[in-house]
Predict the structure.
Amino acid sequence: MKGVQIGEGLKLALYVGFFLLFVACTPGLPPHAEYSQYRSFPTTNLDSCPEGRKDGLSDPDIIFKGKIKGPKSFASYNGKLYTGVLNGYVVRIDDVSLVPVVKFGTSCDQRWEDPKCGRPLDMKFDKDGALYVCARIQWNIQSRRRNRRSGNIYWTHYSTVFELIDLLYTNYADPSGRFMLYNATSGDNQVLIRGIAANGVALSEDGESALIADTLSSRILKYTIKGTKAGSHEDFAIDLPGQPLNILPDGRGRYLVTLMRLPRIVSMAWYSPCLRRMFSRLVYLAETPLRWLDSNFFISYLRRLLHFVRNFEGISRHMPKIAVVLTIDREGKIIDTVCNFDLGSPFADYLSRVLMKQAFPQLAD
Ligand SMILES: *[C@@H]1O[C@H](CO)[C@@H](O)[C@H](O)[C@H]1NC(C)=O
């Protein structure tokens, strides 16, 4: 009797093993992306805030709870703050209300069709008060920075293979994002760096270099715009204690960098291209009946489920809730870290606010 049981168990394990091997190794299965690169995981990891900086982002005011979804970046002009949200709007944050300023994409239900909504990702005012917004409308475009002296725009996209909604696939595949220049003279876009998970961009004050957050490699790259090294790039800050998203000059020659932390289910498979490919394919396989049903019948419940699986929101619930802002000097050295270990999510439905003199006393005047 016992022998039979072990036999059955072994058989099942063999079947599962063969199935996984088939999924991992058969050439040409979707999703179609590269899974070749060995990817190193940062050795430093922030498990708690450095001593003395624990209260940097603690006890924030939580405002507009339930009225806002997925604010990613801010811009300010004339003392007013602006941000972009998941339903495609850029809003101005007044004392008691959010005032719509501009809408990207088309009308949509943000709960399950945000590819239609448009997604303002990063924005900046120029000195004349014109707002430049980088938004994903049909494809995965991310931040833009305008170089005021020349009118050129430096911008990034995170992936050239997957749509923004497919963050799970994007984060498993080899990075395919790029750092780009929109050349105002010629009207063309040029690729400056390719094969990175490019996120935020910041120009140096003298306009001679640009910093690019390479999210999945936990590093910041420096691209030289002028001088003898023009056109080349190098590591600026490596082995950051998380994945960098936005970079903001602090107006005093340093930079503020926001970090997130990827969920374990993504970082677990980090070292092995084969595992990353297998996980992506398994998720794709599981999604296939949902996709088929969705394209043939409209069932709102199914569409929401598919959306939930695709856009990382399901997984992001298990993401470490951390909000970290680093201050980095001109040489790329971390000089300060403030954090909060109970807040922080790309799908947050609130804004949090702390006083400048609490988080960055040196910047509060
Ligand atoms: C922009 O295009 C012009 C005309 O093609 C070219 O002369 C110039 O070098 C380009 N600028 C940059 C920064 O590549």
Observations:
- The pocket of 2-acetamido-2-deoxy-beta-D-glucopyranose is lined by residues 152, 183, 185-186 (CB under 6 Å).
- The chain has a mean pLDDT of 84.
- The two ends are 79 Å apart (CA to CA).
- The first strand starts at residue 61 and ends at 63.
